Automatic annotation (TrEMBL):
Disordered: annotated segments: 1-52
Basic and acidic residues bias locations: 24-37
PROSITE patterns for this protein: BTB
Protein name: BTB domain-containing protein
InterPro entries assigned: BTB/POZ_dom, SKP1/BTB/POZ_sf
Xref: Pfam families: BTB (PF00651)
Annotated BTB domain residues: 58-122
Organism: Acrodontium crateriforme
SUPFAM superfamilies given in the database record: POZ domain
Signal peptide coordinates: none
Length: 288
């Protein structure tokens, strides 16, 4: 990779010159994207739109998860979600210190991401856009892994992409759960963000994908097909891996879910498209 250094010197208090460390062009690009994200506010975020929230509004307490972990948020921030706006309205006659919403079926880590999105327009790890290449990537978390986690417990990006869900009693994809929570709280922009982030995840094992797909089907209506379609496309695109998978074989034999009928239909459509493409001659393509 082409690297360029910037030989700049600055004076410290003692009057001595101090060299600036060399950085690659990619490092500089990432730093500029991070600075742009850090400067972003709900007012400037394309995800949130509208005006910035009033941070002097009433504080609402939210009890989340089976252990009822407590969160606090400004009412005007929560009201960006129609679901929370209605819930806060029900608390209108309660005294400011007594306003409380209980979400015992939500995971605290997931609600934390939702709350971060309501305040900042994104959630960790943030989505970075390289305007020059017009590509998207997830914020690099390698430094945080090194400093915050024990090396024996780290499994790389694939492990960071999952969360232990008490309702499933196993690990599933974090962005899938965030998508379903965004659907519940009527936050379509957060749904799109979670889906885009999940599309950037790699190295996920078949068992985790299948558990996550079942969760997606169980927590989305048939009318909301984007997340379901994502899993169908993923399985078809990676069919060589899934074809060799004992987990996939066991799931197919067990069956009994809408997922596998949809997968069958999607595979048939895929085959039909391939056959139709092979039967169309170059001349007929021009005539069409």
């Amino acid at each position: 990779m082409f690297k360029r250094s910037f030989a700049a010197a600055s004076k410290d208090r003692a009057g001595k010159a101090r060299k600036v460390s060399k950085r690659s062009f990619r490092d500089d690009a990432k730093q500029r994207m991070r600075e742009a994200l850090n400067d972003a506010t709900p007012d400037t975020s394309p995800s949130l739109g509208g005006g910035s929230p009033k941070l002097n509004s009433a504080i609402v307490t939210i009890a989340v998860g089976k252990d009822l972990r407590l969160f606090a948020a400004h009412e005007d921030v929560l009201a960006r979600s129609p679901w929370f706006a209605e819930a806060c309205q029900e608390q209108f006659f309660s005294s400011p210190g007594q306003r409380r919403i209980t979400l015992s079926d939500e995971e605290p880590e997931i609600f934390s991401a939702v709350l971060e999105y309501l305040y900042k327009g994104d959630y960790y790890p943030r989505l970075l856009h390289d305007k020059k290449r017009d590509t998207w990537a997830l914020e690099d978390v390698a430094a945080d892994l090194t400093s915050n986690l024990d090396s024996k417990k780290t499994g790389g990006p694939a492990e960071l992409a999952t969360i232990y869900h008490h309702g499933v009693d196993d690990f599933i994809l974090r962005d899938t759960v965030i998508y379903c929570s965004a659907l519940r709280f009527a936050l379509p922009d957060l749904q799109r963000l979670a889906l885009r982030k999940q599309g950037l995840q790699t190295g996920i094992d078949v068992a985790t994908i299948m558990r996550s797909a079942r969760f997606a089907y169980a927590n989305t209506p048939a009318s909301d097909s984007r997340l379901r379609a994502h899993y169908l496309a993923l399985i078809i695109r990676s069919r060589k891996t899934f074809k060799r998978s004992g987990t996939m074989q066991m799931e197919m034999e067990k069956g009994g879910t809408q997922l596998f009928f949809d997968l069958f239909v999607a595979m048939c459509n895929h085959i039909d498209d391939v056959v139709e493409f092979g039967q169309v001659s170059p001349s007929s393509k021009v005539l069409r």
